Amino acid sequence: MKHISILVPEDAVLASIDDPRVMFTAVNDFLHAMGRPRYFDVKLVGLSKEVRLHNGAFSVHIDALLQDVLKTDLVIVPAIGSDFNSTLDTNKGLVPWIVNQYENGAEVMSLCSGAFLLAYTGLLNGKHCSTHWMHANTFRSMFPDVHLADKKIITEEQGIYTSGGATSYWNLFLYFVEKYVGRDIAIMASKYFVLEMDRYSQSEFTMFKGQKEHEDDAIKMAQEYIETNYTERITVDQLVTMFSIGRRSFERRFKKATSNTVVEYIQRVKIEAAKKSLESSNNRVSEVVYHVGFSDPKAFRTSFKRITGLSPLQYRNKYNPAAQVSE
Which residues pair with residue 42 across a beta bridge? Predict the structure, then answer.
């Protein structure tokens, strides 16, 4: 039997505590109904016997105090509130226990923004992880030694699992169940919880918001110019001349401030505008290409699929099915 310890930190997101409990206990029920032994022993663990969440609206009563859990097989770190510095400081007492369990052979799984708490332990340094796409820029700023794979729903590296944004952690649960219990049970769980199997990317859900939480005013002005004039053909040379900065220095400063090259940033702004057009209008893809300032339809489609994981037509059919436009 695999022992699962679901942490209950201060300022945790309640659903990300209860959902893994529901998934893994349901798997036990499936196995029991088939005459097979239950596989998971699930416990809620924390520093105190009761943790009040969401401004006291909910109370979570834990099954075991951390000091009483000497050995576990999987530590689950749930999502936490977005005031990350304060939340991490409040929960720093969890860090030694998480590190100790990992060093003693336990696997560790973070859900959504729980990656911030996991990264705070230092266990993610030099490794890849995912988190909610909305917090990607903040995460990179706070944890530069971690390789953020924010397009992915699931990462696994050296016994550490992470998931993308919000409810994408359900796909991580399915992945874990398949790995340890079998694909037949994972499929059963996917049907029971009405989940799509084998989803690995959160790219299609990402809304690009240029990183502006930096102190380089010239680069901020360049970002704002790009976002205001995305319908035009914008070049690096044009921006360099406009802001009177040497090209090499401009490109270095832009990358450092935004985590994107200038060309990547321009493309992502254009693609974000294209997504909004496809979601809300009846424009043909060829018209959208023109409106967002791409001169080459093939290059547009290539960039669109690279960034979103879907073709422009697939994207519109998914998010704007009422738009009956033939291509």
Answer: 4
